[in-house]
Design brief:
The structure holds two protein chains of two kinds. By secondary structure, chain A is an all-alpha fold. Chain A contains 14 helices and one strand; from the N terminus they run E-H-H-H-H-H-H-H-H-H-H-H-H-H-H. Chain A is globular, with a radius of gyration of 22 Å.
Chain lengths: ~350, ~290
């Protein structure tokens, strides 16, 4: 068997700059986006706490988590979508639309004196259904009508926001069962609410699915090289459709979350949230070119962008600076990605 | 064993053990053949009455100038295009590929120019792309991947075709061009059960890397696969093939054992300076003259 000699003189040995056993050198580890972000987050928390000890109190943490949860839900969907080399601009307006439809459903059922538990369950399901429907429309526009994801979701962003205003005349929808407020504000361990626990569970599941299952692997492969994915027998269009439905579904859940937090459906609650989600995802190290990204990064990106707001308020800086800080973070995060990409190319050349 | 395996092509394709355990002899009927294939794109005739065959354990070189029809023939063989007329035979049976997936399931792997791999996935991920293995039990049913098993098999399979890897868990974008090509070919050879079609696999590669690719092809031949090697690099073709098919303007102008070509005669066959078989159009006119007189 002369062909099988791995590492022998005649065989193609792909040794290269020999990686350590784990495949990662200390330098690789230091340049990994999620490790850097963890450091940034730790420094940020330390800084804000040093400036104002109120930052690290349960009250403040509970507040930050309430801000974080809807952005996180949108950013999870965005992470999947961007890894496929797509983009979903519609998630913010989907959040608003599903929150409002959820509120109207509950108001209707409540005024008909339906059982509160049933009302809440139906309301949440309706929010999810609205989100999934918008996701399905996005997916169909992209995979059947062959629109670019940017264009398709820009269309649903506008249509969704407009439809929300038509439904509500621009006013808040209150009148749900009292239990909504109770459910949204009862805390465990001083910081967690039931909706928040749901969000954390969803994060855990979607994280594992992305990192460990075939669904996740195919998501990466499509963003990395759609042609190769198709050549390997993957039904690329079908998979993309599922990813956009997932993104819409999570936006629907975020709509329900915001409704539980406020106790009413606000037609403008989702405005600009797609950008917050994309920012969290990109800061988290997901490449807009597709193929790479991790849920850990997105989690840290969302934590950083949402806690900056509370932190700035607590240390007495005008909250408008939040946008500036996030802008800087995006620039730095993408800069680090470029450094890593460049390094990889150099490694490949030297091998 | 061979017949039992090919009765269940779907499952067979997902079971790499099958490919690993195969070193049984092949009947001569186990041949992949195109007969009288015609293919036009609009008014452009890309292939005209082309006969082509590749036998198990044989490397066939497919050469021709740009526009000679090589790529079209590759696409017909791999199921990307359906021929306008003519038939494909595998093991003597007439076959029709509705999609590249059909051809894959029948055991025909194709490696296109510069397109085979996902650079962000690991080597292991690429080798198993679309054929992932799941963990045993409930986790597997939920879609959890068995990365350890896939890494192990990927490493073994690549070593079998002569590609020793320091880490199949590394992503492909960390590999050089030659290494990527080696992985792409290794992947195709590992999965192919009958035929492997390589479209310009030595393009953009240095001399040493090209040599490795040729070696992998020889090892595929040793495993009993039929290999179709498309290339512009005539020294490679002369070095590795058993037979050479020359296409010119959509027609087969030569189909001879490699030993009967010299570099010079091969070049002449490609460019048309040597007409071993005159094209049909040229013999048409004298006949008309005769009939009119």
């Amino acid at each position: 068997m002369p062909m099988t000699s791995a590492g022998g003189a005649g065989s193609t040995t792909l040794t290269g700059p020999a990686p350590s056993k784990s495949g990662l050198s200390a330098r690789d580890l230091l340049l990994r986006q999620d490790i850097i972000l963890l450091g940034v987050f730790a420094v940020m928390v330390a800084f804000f706490t040093a400036m104002n000890s109120a930052f690290l109190t349960t009250f403040s943490i509970a507040n930050i988590l309430q801000d974080w949860a809807p952005v996180m839900l949108l950013a999870i969907g965005e992470t999947y979508v961007i890894i496929t080399a797509g983009i979903d601009l519609s998630v913010g307006s989907t959040l608003g639309l599903s929150g409002v439809v959820c509120a109207m459903t509950m108001r209707q059922m409540n005024s008909a004196n339906d059982d509160p538990a049933t009302t809440i369950a139906v309301g949440v399901l309706v929010a999810l259904a609205v989100g999934a429907l918008v996701g399905l429309i996005n997916g169909m526009l992209i995979t059947r009508a062959k629109l670019a994801p940017f264009v398709a979701t820009l269309a649903t962003l506008g249509a969704g926001a407009g439809f929300t205003l038509v439904l509500t005349d621009g006013v808040q929808i209150a009148g749900g069962p009292r239990e909504v407020i109770t459910l949204g504000n009862t805390t465990y361990l001083q910081v967690l609410t039931s909706p928040l626990i749901v969000v954390i569970a969803v994060l855990a599941v979607t994280w594992i699915v992305l990192a460990r299952t075939r669904f996740g692997r195919w998501t990466y492969s499509i963003g990395s090289n759609q042609f190769a994915a198709r050549g390997a027998g993957i039904n690329v269009q079908w998979h993309l459709l599922k990813v956009y439905v997932l993104s819409g579904l999570l936006a629907g859940l975020a709509g329900a979350f915001v409704y539980f937090r406020l106790g009413s459906g606000s037609p403008t609650s989702g405005q600009g949230q797609e950008l917050a989600a994309i920012a969290a995802t990109v800061i988290g190290g997901t490449s807009l070119f597709g193929g790479s990204g991790r849920m850990a990064g997105t989690l840290l990106g969302a934590l950083i962008t949402t806690s900056v707001l509370s932190g700035l308020i607590l240390i007495g800086v005008a909250p408008n600076w939040q946008q500036v800080v996030i802008g800087v973070l995006i620039a730095v995060a993408v800069g680090i990605q470029q450094i890593n990409v460049g390094r990889m190319r150099r490694v490949a050349r030297h091998v | 064993m061979w017949h039992a395996m090919s009765d269940a092509p779907v499952y067979e394709a997902r079971n790499i053990k099958t490919s690993a355990g195969r070193d049984v002899g092949h009947a001569m009927s186990d041949v992949y053949e195109a007969r009288h294939v015609n293919k036009s794109y609009g008014s452009v005739v890309a292939l005209e009455d082309v006969d082509f065959q590749v036998r198990p354990g044989e490397i066939v070189g497919l050469v021709g100038d740009n526009g000679a029809g090589k790529s079209t023939l590759v696409k017909v063989l791999s199921g990307v295009h359906q021929p306008d007329s003519g038939e494909l035979f595998l093991k003597g049976q007439s076959r029709t590929w509705r999609s590249p997936h059909d051809a894959l399931e029948a055991g025909i792997e194709t490696l296109y120019q510069d397109s085979g791999l996902c650079p962000d996935l690991t080597v292991e991920g690429n080798v198993f792309l679309g054929r992932e293995r799941f963990k045993p039990g409930l986790l597997g049913r939920l879609g959890f991947l068995d990365n350890r098993a896939m890494s192990k098999v990927a490493q073994e399979e690549l070593e079998k075709v002569g590609i020793g890897l320091a880490g199949v868990r590394r992503t492909v974008n960390q590999l050089s061009g030659g290494q990527r090509q080696a992985v792409a070919i290794g992947r195709a050879v590992a999965w192919a059960r009958k035929v492997i079609v390589l479209d310009e696999p030595t393009n953009h590669l240095g001399a040493r890397q090209s040599e490795e690719v040729l070696r992998v092809m020889r090892s595929a031949r040793t495993r009993g696969l039929g290999v179709v090697f498309i290339s512009h690099t005539l020294p490679h073709v002369l070095a590795v093939t058993d037979r050479i098919v020359v296409l010119r303007l959509g027609r087969v102008v030569a189909d001879e054992p490699t030993s009967s070509f010299t570099p010079d005669s091969l070049l002449k066959a490609i460019t048309g300076l040597l007409t071993s078989r005159p094209a049909g159009g040229e013999s048409g006119r004298p006949r008309t003259d005769q009939s009119s007189s």
